[in-house]
């Protein structure tokens, strides 16, 4: 069973380099694990949106991404699918530490991402947690080191990094900066910079933003390495 899984992971990874985004019509055209494909199908997600079609292949290859796409374009799955696949391919389990960190500007957005992850990721053997404040800090502290995927708001995450000795992200594989422009608009620039400086540099980073302002470019310079630019424009 384990040997089969190793072989199928190798098959998936070997297919990453030959992904042709222009030929992708359905999620099945991407080399994705059966667990992810089953979760997507049960949620009724069959055909990738444009930002998903253009970015998922690059993200699967492990590249850093600077993605620009408007609200409602499907950015959540554009990062959740690569997060799930990366941890699956590294055979992450609940016994492992924090493998992915998703930073989003508001509690409401964090909840939405968490709900989508719970549904689409339900066949995966990884745990997810919300770190968004408004809850007992001690409760969050104890739970945090049991999470493989943390979805958080910037202020609360930095508070844990500063105050919580149990919080350990030295094995972080993927950092997602969702709605980066809104994080900066809400005054989180210094907080985001401190968070990024506290994270292990050897990681993949996916940064998504609806707009590309100077402060977003500054954040991208600080957080991304040789990023691929993926920009999706509205069609008339
Ligand atoms: P964004 O983060 O870019 O604002 P979301 O990821 O929140 O967009 O997605 C917007 C809406 O589109 C959600 O209701 C989501 O369920 C839906 N959606 C996302 N991807 C797909 C897809 N591939 N097929 C159908 N619906 C999708
Ligand atoms: Mg979003």
Description of the structure:
The chain has 236 residues and is an alpha/beta fold. It contains 10 helices and 7 strands. It has a 7-stranded parallel beta sheet with strand order 3-4-2-5-6-1-7, sandwiched between helices. It is globular. The termini are far apart. The structure holds adenosine-5'-diphosphate and magnesium ion.
Features:
alpha/beta; seven-stranded parallel beta sheet; 7 strands; 45% helix; binds adenosine-5'-diphosphate
Number of helices: 10
Residues in helix, %? 40-55%
Determine the structural class based on helices, strands and strand pairing. Answer: alpha/beta
Largest sheet: 7 strands, parallel
Question: Topology, please?
Answer:
Layout: H1 2-15, H2 34-42, H3 50-60, E1 65-68, H4 75-89, E2 100-103, H5 107-120, E3 128-131, H6 137-144, E4 149-152, H7 154-163, E5 174-177, H8 180-185, H9 189-197, E6 204-209, H10 214-223, E7 228-231
Parallel strand pairs: 1-6, 1-7, 2-4, 2-5, 3-4, 5-6
The structure holds adenosine-5'-diphosphate and magnesium ion.
Adenosine-5'-diphosphate is lined by residues 45, 47-49, 52, 69, 71-77.
